[in-house]
């Protein structure tokens, strides 16, 4: 299964340019209102061409997918004209460089270094887990299971944070602001899909979510993208109530597709007290929610 938008035949570059053009009002880029009615929102093609100093025909060919290879100066000009943010600019360069190739096969079971698992298990005061670029949960500690969900009770294919955010009602209810968190998930997934356009696993995830969730379909069509950044999330936890945590993300040098994600609370805050109580609660004997007993868990055998 190839990763592509059905309506566009896989023309992600053209789709992205059209979506960003539609999102930009003429007055935002200093263009006067010429009084002509606009059939579609945002900039016209000729206005984008004028701002980027390229021909209208060139913009048309880009948006229709008849030109895929674009020089860096032209991409910079288009990005400037469309007022792209840093993540959007990076995404534009990524999809413009896409070349046909064999689909990426589904990978085997990702491996987490035993020393990294040992470190997770030793992080008694910090919920933490290891993710891959698809947001699959590869390993976790007791605190992460207590904070988010009992990953050990899920089938391996279901241990994906984006999938859980959209398709698991209990996980969805954890978010104080689910729409914001879900839109962030879509933006991250769109970025990774652009970086890895032949990834069959990502394609299958997008297909499943598109079929099963109307919000995902709507937000996917917006072409918003986001790379890694500092995050703060508020959860409505069934044990401790509202808790606001900083989400720290660290790359794993020996595994470029993996990252360590840790959840911390501001010092001397109510959330720090709530997190401390949650971790103590999870450590009590018999708390399956805080004891993921599986070979994928750092505590499992």
Concise summary:
With 301 residues, this protein is an alpha+beta fold. The chain folds into 2 domains: 12-96, 434 Repressor (Amino-terminal Domain) (Orthogonal Bundle); 114-290, 2-Layer Sandwich (Beta-Lactamase), CATH 3.30.450.180. The chain is built from 13 helices and 5 strands.
Structure description:
The protein has helices spanning 12-22, 45-52, 56-63, 72-81, 86-96, 114-122, 142-147, 161-167, 169-172, 178-195, 200-212, 214-221, 270-282, and strands spanning 128-132, 137-140, 231-237, 241-251, 258-264. The chain is α+β, with helices and mostly antiparallel strands and 301 residues long. A five-stranded antiparallel β-sheet has the order 2-1-5-4-3. Strand 1 and strand 2 (137-140) form a beta hairpin. The two termini are 35 Å apart.
| Count of alpha and pi helical runs | 13
What would the CATH topology of the largest domain be?
A: Beta-Lactamase
Distance between the termini: 35 Å
Number of strands: 5
- CATH uppermost class of the largest domain: Alpha Beta
Mean pLDDT, rounded to whole units? 83
Q: What is the strand and helix layout of this fold?
A:
Elements: H1 12-22, H2 45-52, H3 56-63, H4 72-81, H5 86-96, H6 114-122, E1 128-132, E2 137-140, H7 142-147, H8 161-167, H9 169-172, H10 178-195, H11 200-212, H12 214-221, E3 231-237, E4 241-251, E5 258-264, H13 270-282
Antiparallel strand pairs: 1-2, 1-5, 3-4, 4-5
Helix pairs in contact: 2-3, 2-4, 4-5, 8-10, 11-12
